[in-house]
Amino acid sequence: MIELTAADGHIFSAYRADPSDTPKGAVVVLPEVFGIDPHIKKITESFAALGYVALAPTLFDRVKKNVELGYDEAGLTEGLELKSQVGTGDAIADIQAAVNAVKDAGKVAIVGYCWGGYLAYLSGNKVSGLACAIGYYGGGITDAFQEKRKVPTLLHFSEEDPLISFEEVAQFRAYRPDVSVFTYPAGHGFNCAERSSYNEEAATKALERTLFWISQYVEGQSPIMLKNAGAYAAAKTDKKKKPAKPTADGPPE
Q1: Structural domain boundaries of the chain?
Q2: E strands along 166-208, which residues?
Q3: pLDDT category, 224, cuts 50, 70, 90?
Q4: 45 to each of 57, 126, 153, 197, how far by Cα in Å?
Q5: Class assignment of domain 2-232?
Q6: Model's pTM, two decimal places?
Q7: What is residue 251's DSSP assignment?
């Protein structure tokens, strides 16, 4: 674990994993309400193994240090209470500090799960220095559809999620065509192998899309900003040539 300092002077810890070779860029990993547990550490290490500096900030440190909760009712209850005490504003401030801490490695992606998925979505518009944002089954995202996206955004949702209905996701898709949204025939938390809702097929497919997204925007060209829309995939944009004027002797050359 390392220590980071937010803009307001708050000092908090983060779990960092570094690649063995020169980094391709960086990934900030935002946890569920269970804290920086073995699952989040494993995800962080897996990004490092793929060549990225990876960092998971402990967003509960403002309220309680060294939080690592179990995937049971007691753990969920405590995690939700800590989340409400921290608040979104302070969490975003700490996420900004985490992004600042790894930006020297190159472009930075942010990936979040559950509460972290919601924060990753918000961070795309509120945190500077991000190349893209990726969120897994983040409760609250479907209600935050008003703002156009400033960075390319990828979202993974469950089709059998008791917390986020499929109808909400469908409506969100209609409101935010600038966001890439995928759904999976699985339950909430399908990416976590330590939970009963783990779905290997869904987790594997979502990871493939996540890694492609990161490689495209962290290792590839920066996103472009369109005048009347959010940030979309960077693509070569050639100005259309004006048609040649016909000559006196025949058709345009």
Answers
A1: 2-232
A2: 179-184
A3: low
A4: 14, 26, 23, 22
A5: alpha beta
A6: 0.84
A7: S
